[in-house]
């Protein structure tokens, strides 16, 4: 469901087009992952500060999930002013908008993912637009706002059942 094999295929396509520019930092908190044939480093951050540093040091954050309710890592990357290429895993559409705050592709489509990555990596103007849009979108989706939305939703449910 995380689409990691889609990421592997996409990275092979990207590295065939711009081999000198591809290096992947894999953030693996659950288990080590392998990215054969692509220069990479595996990170297992222990603190939020370490995680934020990884987000900020990336040219692009990539999420390949097929389905997620709420894709917190994408929002975290956006809050760290990192351009995002992500799959449309449903939950991401609550805060990420194609072409303004991220680049969204269909899940299970490694070629579309590679194409999006190439566009964002090659077009500095687009890259800048996405990271600025991502940051502004993330500012509207704070923990406090999330808590307020949950309370409002619960109140609406309670009113509905009266």
TrEMBL record:
Pfam families: Glyco_trans_1_4 (PF13692)
Signal sequence, start to end: none
Superkingdom to which the source organism belongs: Bacteria
CDD domains for this protein: GT4_PimA-like
Transmembrane segments: none
UniProt protein name: Glycosyltransferase family 4 protein
Species of provenance: Polycladomyces subterraneus
């Amino acid at each position: 469901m995380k689409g990691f094999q889609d990421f592997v295929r996409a990275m092979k396509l990207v590295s065939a087009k711009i081999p000198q520019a591809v290096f992947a930092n894999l953030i693996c908190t659950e288990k080590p992952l392998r990215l054969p044939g692509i220069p990479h480093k595996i990170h297992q951050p222990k603190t939020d500060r370490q995680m934020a540093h990884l987000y900020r040091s990336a040219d692009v954050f990539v999420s390949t999930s097929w389905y997620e309710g709420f894709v917190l890592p994408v929002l975290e990357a956006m809050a760290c002013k990192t351009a995002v290429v992500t799959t449309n895993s449903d939950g991401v559409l609550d805060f990420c908008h194609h072409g303004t705050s991220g680049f969204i592709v269909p899940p299970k489509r490694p070629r579309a993912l590679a194409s999006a990555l190439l566009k964002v990596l090659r077009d500095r103007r687009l890259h800048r637009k996405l990271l600025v849009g991502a940051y502004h979108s993330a500012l509207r989706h704070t923990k406090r706002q999330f808590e307020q939305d949950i309370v409002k939703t619960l109140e609406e449910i309670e009113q509905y059942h009266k």
